[in-house]
Amino acid sequence: MSISMYQVSVPVFVRALTNLRSILEKGAAHAEARKFKPEVLLNDRLAPDMHPLTRQVQIATDQIKGCAARLAGVEVPKYEDNEVTFEDLYARIDKTVAFIKSLKPEQIDGSENKDISLPTPRGPMEFKGQPYLLFFVLPNVYFHCTTTYSILRHNGVELGKMDFIGKP
What we know:
Elements: H1 5-33, H2 39-42, H3 53-72, H4 86-101, H5 105-108, E1 115-118, E2 125-128, H6 129-154, H7 161-165
Antiparallel strand pairs: 1-2
Helix pairs in contact: 1-3, 1-4, 1-6, 3-4, 3-6
């Protein structure tokens, strides 16, 4: 039995973003319960040369909306990257989930060999659809979601593996 490109992308992305939102909610609750400014968490990073938490969420959502749009052959939604609060990040996640849920399986299925050109500051990266999804986007999404989790966990937010993986 084969798995469709849609099934390997949209439901996986929705789950990752749903879990990411829940992790962020626990971070916000942690800051509130301990009476410190949420910006402490939102601006924290694991290492000086890494992006802060807010940027990690922005990149995860950018990867997801970009991938889904490219595979479906529709325009990639543009976001301003101006989120500064947990509520802003929830809204960005919710907007991304709504966008990818608006795509139909028939728009994405069959995109395994589609030519994908990803613009970067160093020039375009060229992919076929399936390797783009499996070997570029999914690892990037998990990296940035994991980094968000790790920043929060490092700051004492009570999170466990199931918060990252989500409910079955």
